[in-house]
Design a protein that fits this description.
- It contains 14 helices and no strands.
- It has 278 residues and is mostly helical.
- The protein folds into three domains: 43 residues, Homeodomain-like (Arc Repressor Mutant, subunit A, Orthogonal Bundle); 136 residues, Tetracycline Repressor, domain 2; 70 residues, no CATH class.
Length: 278
């Protein structure tokens, strides 16, 4: 386990147990067996660490959910397994989530909005694949509505997991929800929402702006983990362009060419080029 991951995991345990405000950096470094200097070389502040914890947990959730597509199971089982994983991960980190609810830690900054936007879009993509597999391509026009409806259905059960000591059978619950989703799909008529609606109402931005926010979030993660100066410089130039109202496409395309040798940037480069072609 690298130092950054160790700090994230130890700090999340301390925050869940003691609370964010009452946990000191000294307590975190003591738990990790490192110096304060080493901590501040990794994170600028306790607040930036808290954001990194959210980023780390959401990444783990998405990675685990993605494994459902590698299993040789039918569409009903795959959709149910997706829900089971979601509930299990929330149960695993419920104490940390409760701490956030209790202390109402302020993370309403631009970086957090980008993370939430990216997570929301990834959740939509995963559900899209699951719903199309189960209900066929005819469901495509209804995906934005189904996304909102299903998230609304699961929200109440998630609140029970977080806020109460009630022990739910997640497999039984997930199978039950799949039956309810089947009933919803059977009753669908004319679509109400489109993708602009679901990606715009939470962040207050258009679909294009949400995509830019997603790209900026990916860029931030690459820049954070980069140990190559040339790669970092290219990412910084792209970042500056993304912040402008009028993006200079040739500049970004040139920087993307610089990033081609770096395998870890391949997904970002592909997404960036798709955005430029719009």
């Amino acid at each position: 386990m690298d130092k950054r991951t160790m700090i994230i995991e130890k700090a999340s345990e301390l925050f869940a147990k003691k609370g964010f405000d009452t946990t000191s950096v000294q307590e975190i470094t003591d738990a990790c067996g490192i110096s304060k200097g080493s901590f501040y070389l990794t994170f600028k502040s306790k607040e930036s660490l808290l954001f990194a914890i959210f980023e780390y947990f959401t990444s783990k959730l998405v990675d685990r959910i993605s494994t459902v597509f590698q299993k040789e199971i039918n569409s009903q089982e795959r959709l149910s397994e997706y829900l089971v994983i979601q509930f299990e991960e929330i149960q695993k980190y419920k104490d940390f989530i409760l701490m956030q609810v209790r202390e109402q830690t302020n993370l309403g900054n631009e970086e957090m909005m980008r993370l939430l936007s990216r997570l929301r879009r990834k959740a939509f993509e995963l559900q899209e694949a699951l719903f199309v597999e189960r209900y066929g391509q005819a469901i495509s026009a209804h995906l934005p509505d189904l996304f909102v409806i299903v998230n609304g259905m699961t929200k109440g059960y998630i609140e029970i997991i977080i806020m109460t000591k009630v022990e739910l059978d997640y497999k039984r619950l997930s199978d039950y929800l799949v039956e309810r989703i089947d009933s919803v799909v059977d009753g669908l008529n004319e679509p109400l929402l489109d993708s602009d609606s679901i990606f715009g109402f939470q962040t207050g931005c258009s679909s294009s702006a949400a995509i830019k926010a997603d790209l900026a979030s990916q860029l931030h993660a690459l820049k954070r983990d980069s140990a190559n100066a040339d790669m970092t410089i290219s990412l910084e130039v792209i970042e500056e362009e993304l912040m402008k109202e009028a993006i200079r496409k040739p500049v970004i395309i040139g920087m993307l060419s610089n990033l081609e040798p770096f395998e870890e940037a391949a997904e970002f480069c592909q997404a960036m080029r798709s955005f430029l072609e719009q």
